[in-house]
User: Which sequence fits this backbone?
């Protein structure tokens, strides 16, 4: 990686604005901010080719006014600027592909307003997710937003990517929670949008991933902290039976907080450690070994290498895995949870239970639900470690209406299954449809070939999504990884997005090269 | 070009029966001053009409049922304009009983759409009587505040996809997905845009099964404060009734008001709707909760609570403020304590966890209340700032020839007034 210094005039101006402790120009910091959690970027590091255009500076403003001034300075010098939350994005949205400045917002982390009668708060964009939730919990409230990245993602990042939490069936996605947002446009103008304007500008900025404006604060809808929570596991005979059960549940007007259906293969992994389900045997344990974060994996490099070798024949492996799960006949695991005031949470749980039994789901009791809840944030932070054993994992979250869900599931598995082992779970259920969260596992060696395989995998998988009429992202965003498919997603609607880009960021300062713009 | 030439030109796009020089009576209803009205039947015709207007430097005013045009376009000089009526874009295109979505053209009236859905055991959700005359496009482009219930939220939040056409003929077509994270929500950006950015030609709306059970409850409280607090506590407990309304000083002149209950105090009416066992549990909880605020259940819930007892109050005789629950003491003090003249009938409706719409029956004039209420109402949370210029420029950028310029002037003129108040 070539060290690229910032224009001395600009760095001096930034230093004078922020003080030397809030600007970093050194190579180590550049490297640290050169990529987010996009697995392809990790593959590049693995191949010895990290970003060719890391940010030339990282700055830490503390107020919206400082953000305004940084943006004005960057614009005046023609230097691109990439807003940075906590770097947990998985689509390359925070990668600085043109150098420039990384604008780290984590020092904007004040709770400006919070009211337990109005159930609203105004928080700054750099608030780390769990810190914000802790702050609200202390006041007897919750935001209700629990992405698995909650410990390493920020409020601003959530809003910029239209993130979803694990309890979105009850609380909605982040865009349902934002009442108003404070933003700095590409020309340094500070605006506040509350959805009351003559065009719904708020919805224009939510999800724009830093291409139209930098989010500095937002007013959020809150809920009283639930006093009771009930979780339970069920078994459905198949994916289609499970989806039908969820659909009925949601369309009856019930509002569970958690609904997660794992396909047969993913169910095997989720339940492989359950001693009562011995039938899962070796295939289950091996697969769980591969994907879970329980730590067993670190002791079994040999097995990983074996699996990596098997993954290079993904088509065959998928076929074998499918046959194995069909023979085991364990069906699909469904987790359902409710929460709220005790009497209401219980009534909701009972209503859900009745509805699921009438859909032929089999009650597995509370243990699997409780286990899921206790491990809900245990996403694998061991991606790099896993990579050293020759395996790369990645996830793709797409969404469709219920009529399209079976076709979406079938088409993506067929397209991606040529390149990777594919498993999936269905979550974020709504009355109208749900999200499918695909997990891919593919060999990471040799690195260059792996990148080619990775690119083919994503191209084919996203093409299948578009063909089936689904949306290309439910909550991870677009960034770089899905940028080429934005035209397929929006068609001529991109004219509106481009018009907004010209208007809000006339110099093209903000996060250039992303989102298919 | 003469009026007859224009007539022929547009008749060649649609047909002669759908181009009109409206009669005085029709104009009296719609209050438009355009010399010509054109009624396309599909998006392709809309595109050609907009192209023709653009090439001929004609402005276009999009008109649905005309229910809101009175306020928006009245007395606007629109001689170099045509009215683009959505009257014939009136087809219910598809009802998806798997995903519970209805796809309909923009000119379908909500009442018609609701009846079509009811025949299949479905509903748009509870709409107030006044909303049934709105067209779907109109209700999305210029949402009536009444089209909201705690159970379903506003109609706009149930819009899952739409198809709209900009003045340059670009089609903005969003995918019908329950949710997405694919950049800005371009479709939702057009909601509330009042025909100033694009014409909505069709939309996909979420529908529900007609509920299996409804339970109507009615409680009397000693004070408006107690009733309002109970209402906000109900939604804070995540119970979202189909109807939740507090008559702060019950209006006995209304049809169906219960005179047996005596006078004084406030009345909270709730209609719970949904899965029977859940509704039963919610009803028990609501009863407990109202008791905490010394509310007493009245003898029998009133049938008329299921709809809107205030629907007989003309829209011209009522005024609405969005108010925060956190400000209820100040608002009630303004209404009932500081006020030297008798307080006109008032009620809160469209309640959510954060606030409600405060309605005041204004037939006798409420000028003395307007300023103090406006001062008492706003929340301390982040509000909007002056963005009228931004929205106007976005419109200009999408519509460089100014085809929708008059609509923008009307819409942003009003927004500018709001901006002024904020400043």
Assistant:
């Amino acid at each position: 990686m070539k060290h690229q210094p910032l224009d001395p005039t600009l760095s001096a101006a930034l230093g004078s604005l922020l003080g030397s402790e809030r600007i970093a120009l050194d190579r180590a910091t550049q490297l640290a901010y050169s990529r987010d959690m996009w697995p392809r970027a990790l593959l590049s590091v693995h191949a010895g080719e990290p970003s060719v255009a890391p940010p030339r500076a990282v700055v830490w403003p503390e107020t919206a006014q400082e953000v305004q001034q940084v943006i004005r300075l960057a614009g005046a010098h023609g230097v691109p600027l990439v807003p940075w939350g906590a770097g947990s994005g998985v689509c390359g949205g925070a990668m600085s592909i043109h150098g420039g400045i990384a604008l780290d917002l984590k020092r904007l982390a004040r709770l400006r307003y919070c009211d337990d009668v109005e159930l609203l708060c105004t928080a700054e964009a750099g608030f780390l997710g769990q810190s914000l939730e802790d702050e609200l919990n202390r006041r007897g409230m919750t935001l209700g937003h629990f992405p698995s990245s909650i410990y390493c993602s920020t409020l601003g990042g959530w809003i910029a990517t239209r993130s979803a939490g694990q309890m979105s069936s009850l609380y909605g996605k982040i865009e349902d929670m934002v009442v108003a947002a404070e933003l700095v446009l590409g020309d340094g103008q500070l605006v506040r949008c509350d959805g009351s304007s003559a065009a719904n500008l708020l919805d224009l900025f939510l999800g724009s991933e830093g291409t139209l404006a930098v989010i500095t604060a937002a007013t959020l809808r809150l809920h009283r902290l639930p006093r009771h929570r009930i979780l339970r596991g069920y078994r459905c005979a198949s994916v289609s039976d499970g989806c039908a059960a969820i659909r009925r549940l949601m369309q009856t007007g019930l509002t569970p907080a958690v609904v997660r259906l794992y396909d047969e293969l993913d169910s095997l992994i989720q339940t492989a450690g359950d001693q009562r389900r011995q039938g899962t045997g070796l295939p289950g344990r091996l697969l769980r070994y591969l994907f879970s974060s329980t730590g067993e994996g670190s002791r079994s490099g040999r097995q990983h290498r074996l699996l990596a070798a098997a993954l290079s024949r993904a088509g065959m492996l998928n076929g074998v895995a499918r046959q194995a799960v069909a023979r085991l006949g364990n069906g699909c695991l469904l987790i359902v949870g409710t929460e709220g005031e005790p009497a209401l949470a219980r009534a909701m749980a009972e209503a859900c239970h009745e509805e699921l039994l009438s859909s032929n789901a089999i009650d597995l009791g509370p243990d699997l639900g409780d286990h899921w809840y206790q491990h809900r944030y245990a996403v694998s932070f061991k991606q790099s470690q896993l990579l050293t054993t020759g395996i790369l994992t990645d996830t793709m979250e797409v969404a469709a209406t219920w009529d399209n869900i079976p076709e979406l599931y079938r088409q993506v598995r067929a397209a991606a299954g040529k390149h990777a082992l594919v498993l999936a779970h269905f979550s974020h259920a709504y009355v109208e449809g749900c999200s499918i969260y695909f997990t891919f596992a593919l060999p990471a060696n040799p690195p260059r070939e792996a990148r080619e395989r990775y690119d083919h995998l994503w191209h084919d998988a996203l093409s299948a999504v578009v063909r089936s009429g689904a949306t290309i992202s439910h909550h991870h965003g677009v960034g770089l990884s899905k940028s080429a498919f934005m035209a397929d997603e929006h068609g001529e609607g991109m004219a509106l997005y481009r018009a907004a880009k010209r208007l809000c960021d006339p110099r093209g300062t903000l996060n250039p090269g992303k989102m298919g713009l | 070009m003469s009026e007859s030439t224009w007539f022929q030109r547009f008749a060649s796009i649609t047909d002669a029966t759908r181009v009109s020089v409206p009669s005085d009576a029709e104009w009296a209803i719609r209050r438009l001053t355009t010399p010509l009205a054109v009624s396309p039947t599909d998006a392709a015709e809309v595109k050609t009409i907009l192209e023709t207007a653009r090439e001929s430097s004609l402005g276009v005013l999009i008109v649905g049922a005309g229910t809101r045009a009175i306020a928006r376009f009245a007395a606007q000089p629109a001689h170099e304009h045509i009215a683009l009526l959505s009257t014939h874009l009136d087809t219910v295109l598809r009802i998806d009983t798997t995903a519970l979505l209805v796809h309909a053209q923009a000119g379908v009236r909500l009442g018609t759409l609701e009846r079509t859905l009811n025949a299949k055991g479905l509903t748009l959700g509870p709409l107030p009587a006044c909303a049934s005359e709105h067209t779907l496009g109109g209700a999305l482009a210029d949402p009536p505040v009444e089209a909201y219930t705690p159970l379903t939220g506003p109609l706009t939040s149930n819009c899952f996809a739409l198809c709209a056409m900009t003045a340059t003929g670009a089609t903005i077509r969003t995918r019908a997905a329950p949710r997405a994270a694919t950049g800005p929500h371009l479709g939702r950006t057009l909601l509330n845009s009042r025909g100033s950015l694009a014409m909505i030609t069709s939309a996909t709306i979420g529908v529900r099964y007609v509920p299996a059970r409804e339970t109507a409850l009615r409680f009397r409280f000693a004070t408006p404060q107690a009733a309002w607090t109970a209402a906000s506590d109900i939604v804070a407990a995540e119970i979202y009734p189909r109807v939740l309304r507090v008559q702060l000083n019950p209006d006995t002149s209304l049809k169906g008001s219960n005179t047996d209950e005596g006078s004084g105090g406030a009345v909270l009416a709730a209609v719970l709707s949904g899965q029977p066992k859940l509704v039963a549990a919610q009803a028990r909880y609501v009863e407990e909760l109202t008791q905490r605020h010394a509310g007493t259940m009245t003898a029998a819930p009133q049938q008329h609570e299921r709809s809107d007892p205030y629907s007989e109050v003309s829209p011209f005789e009522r005024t609405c403020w969005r108010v925060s629950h956190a400000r209820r003491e100040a608002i009630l003090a303004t209404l009932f304590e500081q006020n030297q003249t008798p307080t006109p009938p008032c009620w809160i409706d469209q309640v959510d966890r954060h606030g409600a719409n405060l309605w005041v029956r204004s037939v006798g004039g409420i000028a003395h209340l307007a300023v103090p209420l406006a001062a008492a109402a706003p929340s301390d949370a982040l509000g909007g700032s002056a963005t009228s210029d931004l929205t106007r420029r976005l419109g200009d950028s999408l519509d460089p020839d100014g085809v929708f310029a008059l609509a923008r002037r009307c819409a942003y003129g009003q927004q500018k007034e709001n901006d002024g108040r904020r400043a």
